């Protein structure tokens, strides 16, 4: 069996919600840690085939959940260049299965300093370096922030 088929592939859209140089972190009670807004790409049943949603669709879903409001099309998150390097292999904390993760990263600048998280989770604004030095923070958030491009995103 080839390496590509030994472990399940998981695609995730991650959104850097930015305000004044800070990124929105949300507390995920299932994981007992803070993370960046993210959403796993879903499979949608189509007669005779299963199609996976597009990374932008998952990014919009993650952003709207974190902000607690719908987004107009002109405010959709923008891709942050090519996908990040995949996490080699991670053991899922949820099901204890080893998986290969692929990340699609997006950025959205927001003006609202107090998002109303749709699920009632706790959210707060952190400096990028806080994700690297504070705990508990998800390994995925740390991985994303370590691989951010140096140049700022377009407005």
Q: Which key features would you list for this structure?
A:
155 residues, alpha+beta, 8-stranded mixed sheet, two-stranded antiparallel ribbon, 4 helices
Textual characterization of the structure:
With 155 residues, the chain is of the alpha+beta class. It has four helices and ten strands. The protein has helices at residues 3-6, 55-67, 128-133, 139-146, and strands at 9-19, 22-28, 33-35, 38-40, 43-46, 49-52, 78-79, 87-91, 98-109, 123-126. Strands 1, 2, 3, 4, 7, 8, 9 and 10 form an eight-stranded mixed sheet that branches. Strands 5-6 form a two-stranded antiparallel ribbon. A hairpin with a 4-residue loop joins β2 (22-28) and β3 (33-35). The longest helix has 13 residues, at 55-67. It starts with a helix and ends in a 9-residue tail after the last helix.
Give a brief rundown of this model.
The protein is an alpha+beta fold and 155 residues long.
List the helices and strands and how they pair.
Blueprint: H1 3-6, E1 9-19, E2 22-28, E3 33-35, E4 38-40, E5 43-46, E6 49-52, H2 55-67, E7 78-79, E8 87-91, E9 98-109, E10 123-126, H3 128-133, H4 139-146
